[in-house]
Amino acid sequence: MAGPRVDRHLFVVFGATGDLLRRKLLPALYEVAGSLAGPGVPFQILGVARQALSDEAYRQICTEALVAAGAAPRAAARRWVAARVRYCSLGAGAPADFARLANRIEEVEKAAGLAGHRVFYLALPAEAIPSVVAGLGGAGLARSAGWSRLVVEKPFGTDLASAERLNRELHRFFDERSIYRIDHYLGKETVQNLLVFRFANMLFESVWNRDRISHVEITVAEALGVEERATYYDQSGALRDMVQSHLTQLLTLTAMEVPARLEADAVRNEKVKVLASVEPIRPDDVVRGQYAAGRAGRSRLRAYRNEPGIRRGSTTETFVALRLRLNNWRWQGVPFFLRTGKRLPEKRTEIVVHFRRPPVWFFPGPSVADVVANRLTITLQPDEGFEIAFELKRPGHAITLETHRLHFLYSEAFGPLADAYQTLLVDLMRGDPTLFVRADEVEAAWAVYAAVLARPPPLRAYPAGTWGPPEAERLAEELGHHWSDG
């Protein structure tokens, strides 16, 4: 079956010798190239970085990256790279360097018979983005004979003021419709399927409200520590790195109203409305934590402050739990609990929708308060799928209730799923921004957490390998709920 058709274009990657390109982007591009329909090679790749490298030297880097990622055998990787990969050094990034880049782009396009359609993918640290965007604009590269699309990786700023400043810098040279802010969580199949799951199944949409739902949990748990990201993470922390982006995206898709049309702006308008409805976060709605020394099985785990690259006495949080309230018709009175952390017991990303208990109990045995409420679990990783927990009668004369589960796994129904980057790259090449983040959405998300960032609550310690500080339990228990930890 033929894949989607895209315009033949030049894919320009800044930061072309970096870790993101080698581990994620290049393997995804390799898979995408084989899935696209149409005659000829769908895109050429031009790597751009500061180093002085020949085309052949850069092709060797790309070949090794594809082999290391398991994307292709060496001979196939070498042929693929030779057919489409070139390199251009940006040097110090002065105006003359960008002028030389513009000439190189025209040269590659002419040799490949391309019509001026271009992607500029900024696989760069956040602080480097404004100068590169200004360089592109100054060299006239923000406009072309075809289309030009600018891709920006998260983080999109570090707070509301920096996000607004970054958006102003991007808009100096690129229209909003040409800017694709990429959050790879939005490319996961289960995240995309949330819209179908909710709005194509009246069984769920009819009960997706405050009348039937008690509370909602969103968890992004990581078993690993900071690993190679120590310098970045110690400047960022869990709230900036995960909550403002990944968890907030899951919140908006879970809570949004049905869009008027299945179009990018219609979907993103509804997500922004969710963010606008979040009530101000109070100090007692937030718990911040940092992992201390602990254990995972027989392995000893060091404390965050003892990790290589972490500042002495760092007060950066590695865990955040929040209690949010949405002041709108659908969700009034339904708390949303968000939680993320490093060095937790397992890697897990899930949305758990807890339904209300029956209003009256007439079965013998436990009271309503003791009954296990129906629960829908939407799992994003490690095993993408859905699970519904419900009550039934255990066989026998006595009426004894027992909780059972129905589940659906994507891997069982469809086999291995495409990597999230592959999905987002195809949408980018097709010009579909639905799964990318709009400027006002970025700013609205930072505004939700502005008060917490300005006045962070005390830092609580938790042993590595546990589910965070004990104080996090209070957020749910005060309202008569509990986190789902199993």
Note down, in words, how this protein is organized.
This protein is of the alpha/beta class. It has two domains: 9-153, Rossmann fold (3-Layer(aba) Sandwich), CATH 3.40.50.720; 186-477, 2-Layer Sandwich (Dihydrodipicolinate Reductase, domain 2). Helices cover 36% and strands 22% of the residues. The protein contains 15 helices and 17 strands. It has helices at residues 19-35, 55-68, 74-84, 95-112, 129-138, 160-171, 189-199, 202-205, 230-255, 264-277, 410-414, 420-430, 439-448, 450-454, 471-477; strands spanning 9-14, 43-49, 85-89, 118-122, 148-153, 179-182, 213-221, 286-292, 294-296, 299-301, 319-325, 335-341, 348-355, 375-381, 385-393, 401-409, 459-463. The strands form three sheets. Strands 16-15-14-13-7-12-11-8-17 form a nine-stranded mixed β-sheet, sandwiched between helices. A six-stranded parallel β-sheet has the order 3-2-1-4-5-6, sandwiched between helices. α6 packs antiparallel against α13. The radius of gyration is 24 Å and the shape is globular. The two termini are 40 Å apart. The mean pLDDT is 91.
